[in-house]
Amino acid sequence: MSKQILVTGGTGYIGSHTVVELQNEGFDVVVVDDLSNSSIEVLDAIEKITGKRPAFEKFNLTDQEKTNAFFEKYRRIEAIVHFAAYKAVGESVEKPLEYYHNNLVSLMNLLGSMRKHKIPYMVFSSSCTVYGQPEKLPVTEDTPRKPAESPYGNTKAVSEDIMRDFARATEGINCIALRYFNPIGAHPSALIGELPVGVPNNLVPFITQTAAGLRDELKIFGDDYNTPDGTAIRDYINVVDLAKAHVVAINRLLNNKQKASYEFFNVGTGEGYSVMQLVKAFIKATGVELKYSVVGRRAGDIEKYGPIPRMRIMNWAGRLRKHSKKH
Ligand code: UDP
Questions:
Q1: How close is the Cα of 99 to the center of ligand 1, in Å?
Q2: Which run of H or E residues covers position 163?
Q3: What are the backbone angles phi and psi of residue 196, rounded to the nearest 5°?
Q4: In the chain, fewer beta carbons within 10 Å around the N or the C end?
Q5: In this predicted structure, what is the pLDDT of residue 122?
Q6: Per-residue pLDDT tens over the stretch 61-87
Q7: What is the pLDDT of residue 306?
């Protein structure tokens, strides 16, 4: 029987695209999700795209009993890709305890289960938010981490530390954290994409929902940043490329190519675009007149992650791919 990959948060945005890429590569996938920010129909879409429906269990991974029961039932799991987490920066400022509890307890339950059930590998969904507002751009893996700007960011930094310490201390456990820049876009089939429950927090789903008439207008959070047009800059990466980076990381672990029990990689494109550039590009590409207005900065936001617009510096997803092929 083939080994299985557990994808937590597998009906979510990046999770669902990663399930598709893993299944396309022939992996047998089981999804765990509590459906708190995604919908069960995503599984139908994954089945339509890949011809295969992943196994599915609905529960929240902070529940230790349910987590234990899950691993008793699924005995062929060899690696975990852990996405399941709360992810809204602004909300985390309002509800820090909920964020720390959900994001940290679920990780610790999973790591404990790895030790108990001898599951050697984890790929963890981290974020470039661990760099805070860096002194120098572009951000590389040598850039020092900074105290997080939000409780959400801090859950990612603390999760990385927990994983690093646990992997170091535990024979046979190997983890890779992928620090994403800003994933956007959708699978070319348009059957899956970014479909948050309720009002979107992220820029691109807010733009598309406004264009589709579901929201009145886009609010641009701040135009007084120290950037060419005053709006904040991010490095936006296509979600399918990001999903493929997870397959690369899984293969790196399964083929024992990792250089340390805990590794981390940035995953972005190396190109930065401002909020205003994105909005204008969307209007130009779709011909839809998007209603927008500028409001104050959002709590917990930083100025920029990407280099200045249009300067191509490096491609981390590409580098990660090359890096693992070399061995
Ligand atoms: N943003 C905005 N209006 C929105 C949502 C986001 O102006 O309705 C801005 C936000 O302030 C940031 C950029 O868009 O500068 C990307 O935000 P997102 O939440 O997508 O990603 P993150 O802040 O986590 O990088």
A1: 19
A2: helix 151-169
A3: -65, 150
A4: N
A5: 98
A6: 999 999 999 999 999 999 999 999 999
A7: 61
How much distance in Å is there from the Cα of 302 to the middle of ligand 1?
A: 10
Whole-number Å distance, alpha carbon 202 to ligand 1 midpoint, is 5
Look at residue 1 in the predicted model and tell me its pLDDT: 62
* Tokens matching residue 251: 């293969």
Nearest-angstrom CA–CA distance, 220 and 301: 12
Question: What is the pairing mode between strands 121-127 and 77-82?
Answer: parallel
Taking the C-alpha atoms of residue 31 and residue 288, their distance in angstroms, rounded to an integer, is 36
Phi, psi at 31, each rounded to 5°: -105, 135
Show the domains of the chain with their CATH numbers.
Answer: 4-184+237-269+308-322 (3.40.50.720)
Max CA pair span of the chain = 58
> Quick one: pLDDT at residue 305?
72
Write the CB contacts of 39 (distance below 8 Å, at least 6 apart in sequence): 11, 195, 197
The stretches in the chain having pLDDT less than 50 are: 307-327
CA 242 to each of CA 135, 212, 248, 293: distance values in angstroms, whole numbers, following the listed order = 25, 26, 10, 31
Interval 231-244: pLDDT, tens: 999 999 999 999 99
Cβ-count burial of 37 within 10 angstroms (0-12 exposed, 13-18 middle, 19+ buried)? buried
Residues with Cβ within 8 Å of 17's Cβ and at least 6 positions away in sequence, in order, are 187, 192, 239, 240, 242, 243
CB neighbourhood size of 81 (10 A): 30
Task: Examine residue 138 and say whether the peptide bond preceding it is cis (omega within 30 degrees of 0).
Answer: yes
pLDDT of residue 302: 82
Which among 203, 236, 239 is the best mutation to test ligand 1's pocket, defined by most ligand atoms within 8 Å of the CB?
203
CB burial of residue 283 (10 Å; 0-12, 13-18, 19+): middle
- Hey, which of 234, 273, 278 would you mutate to test ligand 1's pocket, going by the most ligand atoms within 8 Å of its Cβ? 234
